[in-house]
Recover the amino acids of this structure.
DNA sequence: CGAGCGTTTGAGACAATTCAAGAGATGTGG
DNA sequence: CCACATCTCTTGAATTGTCTCAAACGCTCG
């Protein structure tokens, strides 16, 4: 986990992570924020549940999962995070992280100190709007697993969600590499590992997807959308 | 659906809905916001899915549910809302409501025009903080149904969530009236109506709760918490 | 008092889980 | 660079929790 100084105004992900259309004055203000970069190896924690909240994190590269541990000791996956997405917003309220974030692969994040951010949002209206909007996006129902839906439905949703989010980041909408294991998908979707595996083979037999280990190809997007119900 | 002019500085719910500790100057600024009250009968819509987003709503009295309709026509309940809680935050991002909000009983809300709110947050730091905090709270994992959990677990969670939220509002933590039907609970928790009913009778037989129709009494809070696992 | 809706209870069906085993990758050390 | 250990993924068979279908009960309100 190493660190570098960064300036958002020169970042290639800025159009995703902070798409603001700032005036020169505002840009100057933004670059007073002390943004650092930190690098992570697979399975390294970004923050841990119950730690005091200080920073938000924007993903530069790689991916993360957030997890909670139930009192009975099993791990529940709360979400997956891709480049350009922010982690830690849930902790503003309690001033403590309520889950643990772990790197799914070699990854890098920008560290955004929360107090510096709120100072900036106070004088940059479009930045305030952006934070509101980003938090609002996460409140939308399609961001959560519908407990009424079938296993097939949940997996279709996850694949399409990943597809859309990769597309926004300039990757292929139809072909990508899953950075999480079957078990992690299961613990996110509320399904047994075996069920995830079975559904994947089913979808492949129906020629809706092709899948070899973690490489997926969405062959028939229309049928996949139909499965979402 | 009738309307009245309101001033937050004289509202009895202000300590819940906008607990800000404002300076006199800030209070003056806040009271320039044109807050109206609207009243609702059971099952009246507050907003509908796909309508353009203009207002946030704070509940003064009564309760609401938010629902989405799946393409196959069935209703999924996304959440329940009690006095002091805000509705519509999810719509900031798309500038459109993504669900329909319906009154569960006779209810009243404060209408908060979003543009006026963001103007106010820009000059009242504690108000900005409050909005961030409120949105952040909704991102916490205990706000969502864990698709991994058993029917018993889900119902225990819902009961305890309602209990806590009623407590904050000065009602009894142990005894309250459910404003939603078994069916609505089921559609929220991802369970059949019959399952909800069965679990309630089970919990009553174990002397963990007492329940008669919609009147609940949480007899053994500890055991109920254990069930949350 | 009867109509209608919400709730409860029972029995059979089914989707997903658990348990069990094997196949296929990936990594390590000699 | 191969051999072995380990991890992940797949497949099968039995089990189980929840759902669906069906019917009866009990409020509530006209």
């Amino acid at each position: 986990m190493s660190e570098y100084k960064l300036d958002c105004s020169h970042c290639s992900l800025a159009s995703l992570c902070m798409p603001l259309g700032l005036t020169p004055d505002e840009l100057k203000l933004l670059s007073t924020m002390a943004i650092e970069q930190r690098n992570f190896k697979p399975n390294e924690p970004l923050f841990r549940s119950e730690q005091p909240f200080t920073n938000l994190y924007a993903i530069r590269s790689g991916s993360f999962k957030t997890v909670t541990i139930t009192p009975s000791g099993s791990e529940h996956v709360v979400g997956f995070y891709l480049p350009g997405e922010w982690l830690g917003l849930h902790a503003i309220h309690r001033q403590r992280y309520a889950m643990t974030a772990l790197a799914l692969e070699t990854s890098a994040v920008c560290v955004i100190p929360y107090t510096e951010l709120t100072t900036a949002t106070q004088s940059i209206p479009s930045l305030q709007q952006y934070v509101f909007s980003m938090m609002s996006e996460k409140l939308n129902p399609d961001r959560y697993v519908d407990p009424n839906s079938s296993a097939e439905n949940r997996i279709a949703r996850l694949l399409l969600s990943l597809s859309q989010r990769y597309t926004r980041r300039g990757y292929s909408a139809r072909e990508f590499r899953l950075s999480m294991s079957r078990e992690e998908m299961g613990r996110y979707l509320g399904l047994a590992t075996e069920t995830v595996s079975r559904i994947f083979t089913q979808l492949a037999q129906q020629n809706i997807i092709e899948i070899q280990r973690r490489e997926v190809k969405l062959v028939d997007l229309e049928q996949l959308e139909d499965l979402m119900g």
